[in-house]
Design the sequence.
């Protein structure tokens, strides 16, 4: 348990550092800027308290905001992300529930499930983020397009992280 | 009362969500307000000092190109100096220049920002103009002790008074939030001929920018028959994607002009 907690803390710190120092300075074509920090909220344990998720989402978004001079934007988007997550999880629950798996990963849940889940969640977050950023309805389709293209970029990074940093489960029957 | 408490307990998740979002929107709106600056300048100073460290390692990459630009600017300044001597213009120009570096900047957002490595200890104040060697950049927005943030032309709230050099007709320059190379000049009457490549310069009307600083070049215009005004598509002279050396301009007589204008409005 303690080890798991530690790995969540380390993931939090690393993601903030990567987001702030690396990705905020990568702007492919002026349109694409992946927001990978959301990965932290994405892979919280399935049975993690929803209230705790909201508060973590708030803290995470606030820290990203502080470093990228966009006070409020990321906070709103990631709180929204944390709000939607339990509902999406419940909606996408496997037939026999989540009882064998607490962690969300490609290896545990399979490619299809993982892609659907993270694709949906990432798009949700990005759409709220870009909508708040533009703060109007006029460029609606531009906002949607921007959200989709950025979601693909973020999703690609999430898969890379998954493949690099998750070990195959030793045994789920222990 | 018991029912009420029960209601709160049952809906704690949704209520907490709403509460946190309200805090988020409060942050967002106070942040957009022009003067409510405490958190903002703390954040500017924090991200400024990080960006400074990162920048000290990264700045060598663009050194050659920056040198070329500086050389080119020196040449132009010398030319202007010579003209001044020749025509004996008024030497008491009220504008004072400070050099600065953009240590962090964005161009891909709907509301972009730039962080400069000069702050209140260097005499920088909000509402001073920021220029690059190529043209205008924006207006100083928030200031901390050592750093300041700039509201660049490519920000949805930026409004700058500009004119066409061809015929001195003036209008407001604003940015529509999509392409960081283009802005729009509004309120030019339809009967004014605007040709591609016409240069557009600052008017100096607000007392923030010195007059006749290059803003960009016209590239097509759209006439609106209903209002009788056309909006000109302006290719910005400044490349916000590689901005580094900038000048902050202080107008020493701005307050005098401002108070004079105020007496008219009253």
Sequence:
């Amino acid at each position: 348990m303690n080890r798991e907690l530690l790995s969540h803390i380390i993931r939090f710190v690393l993601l903030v550092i990567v987001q702030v120092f690396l990705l905020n300075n990568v702007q492919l074509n002026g349109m694409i800027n992946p927001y990978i920090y959301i990965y932290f909220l994405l892979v919280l344990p399935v049975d993690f308290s929803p209230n705790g998720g909201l508060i973590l989402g708030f803290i995470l978004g606030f820290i990203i905001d502080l470093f990228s001079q966009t006070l409020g934007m990321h906070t709103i988007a990631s709180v929204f992300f944390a709000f939607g997550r339990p509902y999406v999880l419940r909606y996408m629950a496997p037939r026999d529930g989540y009882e064998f798996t607490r962690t969300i990963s490609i290896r545990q849940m399979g490619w299809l499930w993982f892609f659907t889940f993270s694709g949906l969640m990432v798009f949700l977050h990005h759409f709220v983020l870009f909508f708040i950023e533009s703060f109007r309805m006029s460029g609606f389709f531009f906002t949607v397009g921007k959200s989709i293209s950025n979601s693909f970029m973020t999703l690609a990074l999430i898969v890379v992280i998954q493949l690099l940093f998750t070990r195959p489960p030793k045994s789920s029957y222990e | 009362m018991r029912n009420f408490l029960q209601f709160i307990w049952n809906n704690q998740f949704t209520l907490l969500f709403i509460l946190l979002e309200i805090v988020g929107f409060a942050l967002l709106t106070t942040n957009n307000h022009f003067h409510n600056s405490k958190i903002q300048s703390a954040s500017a100073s924090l991200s400024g000092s990080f960006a400074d460290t990162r920048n000290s390692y990264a700045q060598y990459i663009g050194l050659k190109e920056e040198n070329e630009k500086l050389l080119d600017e020196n040449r132009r300044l010398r030319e202007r100096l010579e003209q001044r001597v020749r025509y004996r213009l008024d030497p008491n120009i009220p504008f004072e220049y400070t050099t600065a570096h953009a240590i962090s900047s964005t161009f891909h957002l709907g509301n972009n920002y730039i962080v400069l490595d000069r702050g209140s200890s260097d005499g920088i104040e909000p509402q001073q103009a920021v220029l690059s060697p190529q043209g205008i950049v924006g207006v100083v927005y928030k200031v901390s002790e050592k750093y300041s943030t700039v509201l660049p032309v490519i920000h949805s709230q930026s409004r700058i008074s500009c004119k066409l050099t061809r015929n001195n007709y003036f209008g407001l320059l604003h940015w529509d939030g999509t392409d960081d190379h283009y802005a729009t000049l509004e309120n030019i009457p339809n009967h004014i001929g605007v040709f591609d490549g016409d240069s557009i310069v600052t008017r100096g009307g607000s007392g923030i920018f010195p007059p006749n600083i290059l803003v960009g070049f016209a590239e097509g215009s759209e006439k609106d028959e209903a209002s009788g005004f056309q909006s000109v598509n302006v290719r910005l002279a400044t490349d916000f994607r590689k901005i580094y050396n900038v000048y902050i301009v202080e107008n020493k007589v701005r307050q005098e002009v401002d108070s004079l204008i105020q007496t008219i409005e009253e």
Notes: The first helix of chain B runs from residue 2 to 10. The domain at 33-266 of chain B is CATH 2.40.10.350 (Thrombin, subunit H).
